Protein backbone atom coordinates (compact mmCIF):
# COMPACT_ATOMS: atom_id res chain seq x y z
CA UNK A 1 0.00 0.00 0.00
CA UNK A 2 1.16 3.50 -0.71
CA UNK A 3 -0.36 6.73 0.55
CA UNK A 4 -1.04 9.49 -1.95
CA UNK A 5 1.20 12.54 -2.23
CA UNK A 6 -1.63 14.61 -0.74
CA UNK A 7 -1.56 12.56 2.47
CA UNK A 8 2.24 12.69 2.60
CA UNK A 9 2.14 16.49 2.18
CA UNK A 10 -0.62 16.80 4.79
CA UNK A 11 1.44 14.94 7.37
CA UNK A 12 4.54 16.99 6.58
CA UNK A 13 2.56 20.23 6.80
CA UNK A 14 1.04 19.26 10.15
CA UNK A 15 4.47 18.35 11.53
CA UNK A 16 5.98 21.63 10.31
CA UNK A 17 3.19 23.74 11.79
CA UNK A 18 3.21 21.78 15.06
CA UNK A 19 6.86 22.66 15.58
CA UNK A 20 6.03 26.38 15.41
CA UNK A 21 3.09 26.87 17.78
CA UNK A 22 4.13 30.42 18.64
CA UNK A 23 3.32 31.82 15.19
CA UNK A 24 1.36 31.44 11.98
CA UNK A 25 3.08 29.48 9.21
CA UNK A 26 2.64 30.20 5.52
CA UNK A 27 2.16 27.86 2.61
CA UNK A 28 5.23 29.39 0.94
CA UNK A 29 7.54 28.57 3.85
CA UNK A 30 6.25 25.00 4.19
CA UNK A 31 6.62 24.52 0.43
CA UNK A 32 10.17 25.81 0.53
CA UNK A 33 11.12 23.75 3.57
CA UNK A 34 9.91 20.51 1.98
CA UNK A 35 10.49 21.24 -1.71
CA UNK A 36 6.78 20.90 -2.46
CA UNK A 37 4.65 22.82 -4.95
CA UNK A 38 2.73 25.71 -3.36
CA UNK A 39 -0.28 24.83 -5.54
CA UNK A 40 -0.39 21.32 -4.08
CA UNK A 41 0.00 22.67 -0.55
CA UNK A 42 -2.90 25.07 -1.10
CA UNK A 43 -5.15 22.08 -1.82
CA UNK A 44 -3.78 20.21 1.20
CA UNK A 45 -4.24 23.25 3.44
CA UNK A 46 -7.82 23.66 2.24
CA UNK A 47 -8.64 20.00 3.02
CA UNK A 48 -6.96 20.12 6.44
CA UNK A 49 -8.85 23.31 7.31
CA UNK A 50 -12.17 21.78 6.16
CA UNK A 51 -11.52 18.83 8.45
CA UNK A 52 -10.62 21.15 11.36
CA UNK A 53 -7.01 19.96 11.73
CA UNK A 54 -5.64 23.45 11.10
CA UNK A 55 -6.97 26.98 11.51
CA UNK A 56 -6.22 29.49 8.79
CA UNK A 57 -6.01 33.28 8.85
CA UNK A 58 -6.41 35.06 5.52
CA UNK A 59 -4.80 38.26 4.33
CA UNK A 60 -1.57 40.06 5.01
CA UNK A 61 0.15 38.52 8.01
CA UNK A 62 -2.05 35.45 7.67
CA UNK A 63 -1.10 31.82 7.74
CA UNK A 64 -2.04 28.64 9.52
CA UNK A 65 -1.68 26.96 12.89
CA UNK A 66 -2.90 23.73 14.39
CA UNK A 67 -6.54 23.77 15.42
CA UNK A 68 -5.81 21.24 18.19
CA UNK A 69 -2.92 20.13 20.33
CA UNK A 70 -0.57 17.71 18.51
CA UNK A 71 -1.54 15.05 21.05
CA UNK A 72 -5.18 15.42 19.94
CA UNK A 73 -4.47 14.93 16.22
CA UNK A 74 -4.76 11.21 15.47
CA UNK A 75 -2.69 10.01 12.51
CA UNK A 76 -5.27 7.42 11.46
CA UNK A 77 -7.99 10.06 11.34
CA UNK A 78 -5.81 12.38 9.24
CA UNK A 79 -4.98 9.59 6.78
CA UNK A 80 -8.66 8.60 6.50
CA UNK A 81 -9.56 12.23 5.87
CA UNK A 82 -6.96 12.69 3.15
CA UNK A 83 -7.22 9.39 1.28
CA UNK A 84 -10.15 9.04 -1.09
CA UNK A 85 -9.72 5.37 -1.99
CA UNK A 86 -8.61 2.44 0.14
CA UNK A 87 -9.38 -0.23 -2.46
CA UNK A 88 -6.12 -2.18 -2.63
CA UNK A 89 -7.31 -4.36 -5.51
CA UNK A 90 -9.96 -3.86 -8.19
CA UNK A 91 -12.58 -6.09 -6.58
CA UNK A 92 -12.63 -3.91 -3.46
CA UNK A 93 -13.77 -0.94 -5.52
CA UNK A 94 -16.87 -0.42 -7.63
CA UNK A 95 -17.50 -2.39 -10.81
CA UNK A 96 -14.90 -5.17 -10.89
CA UNK A 97 -13.85 -6.85 -14.14
CA UNK A 98 -12.00 -9.61 -12.29
CA UNK A 99 -13.32 -13.10 -13.09
CA UNK A 100 -12.47 -14.20 -9.55
CA UNK A 101 -14.71 -11.64 -7.81
CA UNK A 102 -16.75 -13.48 -5.22
CA UNK A 103 -14.76 -16.70 -5.67
CA UNK A 104 -11.49 -15.96 -3.86
CA UNK A 105 -10.44 -14.80 -0.43
CA UNK A 106 -7.83 -12.25 -1.53
CA UNK A 107 -10.06 -9.21 -0.96
CA UNK A 108 -10.76 -10.36 2.60
CA UNK A 109 -7.08 -10.92 3.35
CA UNK A 110 -6.18 -7.48 1.99
CA UNK A 111 -9.06 -5.87 3.87
CA UNK A 112 -7.69 -7.38 7.09
CA UNK A 113 -4.24 -6.01 6.29
CA UNK A 114 -5.71 -2.56 5.67
CA UNK A 115 -7.62 -2.70 8.96
CA UNK A 116 -4.41 -3.62 10.80
CA UNK A 117 -2.56 -0.78 9.07
CA UNK A 118 -5.22 1.76 10.06
CA UNK A 119 -5.44 0.39 13.61
CA UNK A 120 -1.68 0.86 13.92
CA UNK A 121 -1.95 4.49 12.75
CA UNK A 122 -4.85 5.02 15.17
CA UNK A 123 -2.42 4.27 17.99
CA UNK A 124 -0.37 7.40 17.26
CA UNK A 125 -0.89 11.14 17.42
CA UNK A 126 0.95 13.96 15.70
CA UNK A 127 2.84 14.51 18.96
CA UNK A 128 4.27 10.99 18.69
CA UNK A 129 5.97 11.67 15.36
CA UNK A 130 7.38 15.14 15.95
CA UNK A 131 11.16 15.52 16.09
CA UNK A 132 12.66 15.94 19.55
CA UNK A 133 12.09 19.32 21.19
CA UNK A 134 14.47 22.11 20.25
CA UNK A 135 15.84 22.11 23.79
CA UNK A 136 17.06 18.54 23.27
CA UNK A 137 18.99 19.51 20.14
CA UNK A 138 22.76 19.70 20.75
CA UNK A 139 24.13 23.22 21.00
CA UNK A 140 26.23 24.55 18.11
CA UNK A 141 29.95 23.81 18.41
CA UNK A 142 30.82 27.48 18.93
CA UNK A 143 28.55 27.70 21.97
CA UNK A 144 30.05 24.52 23.40
CA UNK A 145 33.55 25.97 22.99
CA UNK A 146 32.48 29.12 24.88
CA UNK A 147 31.03 27.03 27.68
CA UNK A 148 34.21 24.90 27.83
CA UNK A 149 36.39 28.01 27.94
CA UNK A 150 34.35 29.52 30.79
CA UNK A 151 34.48 26.25 32.73
CA UNK A 152 38.26 26.00 32.26
CA UNK A 153 38.76 29.57 33.52
CA UNK A 154 36.65 28.88 36.63
CA UNK A 155 38.78 25.81 37.49
CA UNK A 156 42.01 27.85 37.36
- Which class best fits the helix and strand makeup? mainly alpha
- Topology order in helix (H) and strand (E) letters: HHHEEHHHH
Coarse morphology: elongated
Unreliable spans are 134-156
Q: Average pLDDT value?
A: 84
Spatial separation of the terminal alpha carbons: 63 Å
Helix share bin? 40-55%
Radius of gyration: 22 Å
Q: Summarize the main sheet.
A: 2 strands, antiparallel
- Tell me the β content: 5-15%
Number of helical stretches of at least 4 residues:
7
Going across the biggest sheet, name each strand in turn.
Answer: 1-2
* Strand count: 2
Task: Indicate the topology.
Layout: H1 5-18, H2 27-34, H3 38-50, E1 54-57, E2 63-66, H4 75-82, H5 106-122, H6 126-129, H7 141-155
Antiparallel strand pairs: 1-2
Helix pairs in contact: 1-3, 1-4, 2-3, 4-5
Provide tags for this entry.
156 residues; mainly alpha; disordered C terminus
Amino acid sequence: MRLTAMTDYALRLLMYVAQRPERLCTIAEVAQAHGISEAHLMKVTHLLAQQDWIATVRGKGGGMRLAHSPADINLGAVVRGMESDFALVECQGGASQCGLTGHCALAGVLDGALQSFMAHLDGFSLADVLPAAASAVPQPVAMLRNISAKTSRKRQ
